[in-house]
Backbone:
């Protein structure tokens, strides 16, 4: 946009595919989407807009959506072939994170219901 | 031992998968930092798991719904989100060799991050004063560990930002400084992603 000479050809997380066009726009789009998701989360948690037992699920969906927005618009992790390494590392990280959180909650809940007196 | 020696990518676009030779140093450095960030996420996952397990064990003490001030949490969220935005624009300006814009955006980033820390610190102090400190219950220990660890990361990020800006002043926007700025922005965006998890799991689900 401002600087026609572009120094780099390759992709890292955090750098867009084509830095010369529309990158300010992409950050701004990400910001708007993230603000919408945040406001939706706070509204859902504080009102009866959703069926009460469904609120945690709704909040998780909104959080995942917002994390997706951050990854795509701020960290520029897309489907382009040159960010495959970054995506693969991310996928492994997500796997470990899910194993730790879901595994801990599952095991402790099971212990709680089987071993607590009364 | 030398993985990559050049700062610029070769003439053909290197994929980092050995098709056109080794990736540029910039790619290798950012990829290594990305791995570090993911390992940091694994550590946060352990703290999230601890909090999820302990969040109902209030030991007769105050619960999240009694303690949390959601309007403040909303302001904190907006501060961090906007600072992530200005951080992205700042690095973009640095890539385009526009130091003046970089400093303006970095100043916003620092101010918003500092505002976030100030609000969080005030909340922590208020909770500790009202007898809801980390030693009150398992729930509060897990809360202060998780949220405090995120705050500690933000503090380190702000210190690193000042250090990096000093490097920009001293050395200019040369390749090594640009690489550090890029890594720093990855760190800052990642902290915002962790905060999405914190405000959803801790404040919104726990504050109802």
Residues:
């Amino acid at each position: 946009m401002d600087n026609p000479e572009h120094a780099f050809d390759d992709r890292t997380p955090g750098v867009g595919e084509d830095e010369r066009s529309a990158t300010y726009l992409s950050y701004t789009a990400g910001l708007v989407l993230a603000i919408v998701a945040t406001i939706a989360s706070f509204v859902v948690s504080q009102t009866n807009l959703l069926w009460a037992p469904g609120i945690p699920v709704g909040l998780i969906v909104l959080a995942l959506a917002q994390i997706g927005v951050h990854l795509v618009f701020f960290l520029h992790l897309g489907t382009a072939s040159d960010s495959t390494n970054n995506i693969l590392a991310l996928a492994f990280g997500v796997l470990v994170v899910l194993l730790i959180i879901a595994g801990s909650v599952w095991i402790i809940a099971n212990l709680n219901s089987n071993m607590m007196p009364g | 031992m030398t993985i990559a020696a050049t700062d610029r990518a070769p003439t053909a676009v290197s994929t980092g998968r050995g098709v056109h030779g080794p990736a540029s140093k910039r790619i290798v450095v950012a990829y290594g930092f990305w791995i570090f960030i993911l390992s940091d996420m694994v550590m946060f996952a352990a703290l999230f798991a601890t909090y999820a397990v302990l969040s109902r064990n209030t030991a007769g003490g105050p619960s999240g719904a009694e303690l949390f001030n959601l309007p403040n949490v909303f302001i904190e969220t907006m501060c961090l989100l906007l600072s992530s935005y200005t951080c992205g624009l700042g690095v973009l300006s640095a890539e385009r060799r526009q130091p003046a814009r970089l400093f303006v955006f970095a100043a916003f980033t620092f101010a918003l991050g500092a505002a976030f820390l100030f609000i969080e610190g005030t909340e922590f102090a208020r909770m500790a004063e009202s007898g809801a400190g980390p030693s009150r219950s398992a729930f509060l220990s897990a809360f202060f560990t998780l949220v405090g660890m995120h705050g500690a990361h933000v503090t380190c990020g702000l210190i690193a930002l000042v250090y990096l800006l000093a490097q920009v002043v001293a050395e200019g926007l040369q390749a090594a400084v640009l690489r550090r700025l890029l890594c720093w922005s990855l760190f800052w965006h990642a902290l915002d992603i962790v905060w999405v998890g914190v405000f959803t799991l801790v404040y919104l689900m726990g504050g109802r």
Residues 4-10 of chain B have pLDDT under 50 and may be disordered. Residues 164 and 181 of chain B are 7 Å apart (CA to CA). Chain B has one domain: 25-52+69-206. The longest helix of chain B spans residues 138-171.
